[in-house]
Design goal:
- This protein has a seven-stranded mixed sheet with strand order 2-1-5-4-3-6-7.
- The protein has a single domain, classed as Glutaredoxin.
- The protein is α/β, with parallel strands linked by helices.
- The mean pLDDT is 91.
- Its main location: other.
Length: 144
């Protein structure tokens, strides 16, 4: 995972390495202006609860330029995922190899990008949850 300068929802600076906290993570790149991103956000929220017992975090990285829009969106829709905002959306997208949104990265505990998914999906679908778990090198007990 490249070093990125991020801002938390409360306005504090965050380094991408600190945001990951040394744990495997599903990192979703999104924006408030991206309709598919908004549509899949509730299923990402559910995915977080499904993966938490496995020690896998689900993180949302906004590439919006207006931080207030992100804060309003999160509040309006009750998003409780850890959300950060890229200080330079274009640099973040380039550094992560993202050409379109939504883009979701599978990041190992050591910060290595293990794979990605481009496009909207139902992240809480049992087949998708199994596929996401299989992306991480440590096998976890089978769960629905």
């Amino acid at each position: 995972m490249p070093a990125l300068e991020l801002t938390g929802l409360e306005g504090g600076a965050i380094r991408s390495q600190d945001w990951l906290k040394g744990r495997p993570a599903v990192v979703n790149l999104w924006a408030t202006w991206c309709a598919p991103c908004r549509t899949e956000m509730p299923s990402l929220q559910r995915l977080e609860a499904l993966l938490a017992p496995d020690g896998i975090r689900v993180l949302a990285l906004s590439v919006d330029s207006d931080h207030n829009l992100v804060r309003e969106f999160v509040l309006k829709y009750g998003i409780t995922l850890p959300v950060s905002i890229a200080n330079s959306p274009s640099k973040a997208m380039a550094a992560l190899g993202a050409v379109a949104l939504p883009q979701t990265l599978y990041v190992g505990a050591d910060g290595t990008i293990l794979g990605s998914h481009l496009g909207q999906r139902d992240w809480a679908d049992p087949t998708t949850v199994r596929e996401v778990r299989s992306r991480f090198p440590v096998k976890t007990p089978a769960r629905p």
